[in-house]
Amino acid sequence: MIVRRFFFDVLGVRNVARFAAASACVATAFFVAASSNAADVVRYLVKTDTGAYEERSAEGTITAVSPDGVSLDAQGKNAPDANPIPTERVVWLQFQDAPMNLAAARVETEIGAWEEALEKLDDIGADDLDREKYPTIAAEVDWYRAYAALQLALTDAGSFKDGGSAMAKFVKEHSDSYRYYEAQQALGAAYYAMSERQTKKESKQDFLKRARDSYAVLENAASEEIQARGKLGLAKVAFDLSEFDEAKKLFGEVAERTEFDVESSEAKAGLARTSARQGDVDEAVRILNELLEETPNDATLRQARIYNALGDVYADANRPYDAVLAYLHVDLLYPAARTERVAALKALVGQWRKLDREDRAQETIERLRDRFHVDVR
């Protein structure tokens, strides 16, 4: 059941989250500064015996980069178990010859400060980076610029023309990057989001088909996990095209891959939304509540997405009070989940109005504008 108590120190929760994010940024920046003079660095994920992921770093010389992995001639005792390191495990690369502002932009990106990230990237000039001599570093700069611009667009704080064009350019020019499949997934997300903003059926379907083409590319990846991400995107497109049998099939296939916990969780949420759209709201709520119970406490981003899915289910079922409670969870409990918070706040505007609470709707609109630079009417 949804927790219905919100009497806690919201300011305290947010300050703790900001302090943690700031501490992480300082630690990351210190690590990069200490390491980058001597060697390249690969930050990657390792699955522990408990099933959780932890980040590790390996230093050495990056010898090869491809859409399927990163090869490292490692130094010392920190060699990764798998070499090449699979793409889906690579968090970021730091090249010893990279400009300092690239590391700073990455730190800003990690905490969702996309405007600041773009400012750092704009300060990287021709004197700071020889793009012909260091094409892999240039690809990193282009990736973070495209990613930050696209995230701003997805939260309605930027232009899809800028973000989408930058990501499409990245896909075209850096098809050999370890970010290639991630970029195709991001481009699919951009087309999907643009489809939601169309008023004409033909335009909506056109963008959904473009999203489908981008997500389908992920099926060519060597990694089964990346393939699952592509299948998840294809399921979302099928859902929006009202191809519910196809959506259920694809969501179900990914949901069964419990070793891919993030993708499996999103697929279960997709199954719930599909069940609700087909009229079985009780089944949808059951699935999502079970999903919340089995999601680890530290998987905050996943929890935020589940609550948003729960809000969507209640909104579709014309249960605005329950929808409001679900969306408020996202806004109040997950301060670092910027994209999910913006989605929840935008949805809240309509739900407050259904409850004849125009005052709360206006408060939410003001928060979107002042905090996230998003205009909603």
Notes on the structure:
The structure is a single chain. With 377 residues, this protein is an alpha+beta fold. 63% of the residues lie in helices and 9% in strands. It has 15 helices and five strands. Strands 4-3-2-1-5 form a five-stranded antiparallel β-sheet, with no helix packed on it. Helix 6 packs parallel to helix 8, helix 11 runs antiparallel to helix 12 and helix 14 runs antiparallel to helix 15. The chain is globular and about 60 Å long.
- The percent of residues in helical segments reads 55-70%
**Strand line-up across the major sheet:** 4-3-2-1-5
Q: Oligomeric form of this entry?
A: single chain
Distance between the termini: 32 Å
The 3D shape can be described as globular
Spans of at least 5 consecutive residues whose pLDDT stays below 50 are 1-37
Strand content: 5-15%
Q: Output the radius of gyration.
A: 21 Å
User: What structural class do helix, strand and pairing data support?
Assistant: alpha+beta
Tally of DSSP helical segments:
15
Quick recap:
The chain contains 15 helices and 5 strands. It has 377 residues and is of the alpha+beta class.
Helix and strand arrangement:
Elements: H1 10-35, E1 40-47, E2 53-66, E3 69-74, E4 85-86, E5 90-94, H2 100-110, H3 114-122, H4 135-154, H5 160-173, H6 180-196, H7 201-217, H8 224-240, H9 244-255, H10 261-277, H11 281-294, H12 300-316, H13 320-333, H14 338-354, H15 358-372
Helix pairs in contact: 1-2, 2-3, 2-4, 3-4, 4-5, 4-6, 5-6, 6-7, 6-8, 7-8, 8-9, 8-10, 9-10, 10-11, 10-12, 11-12, 12-13, 12-14, 13-14, 14-15
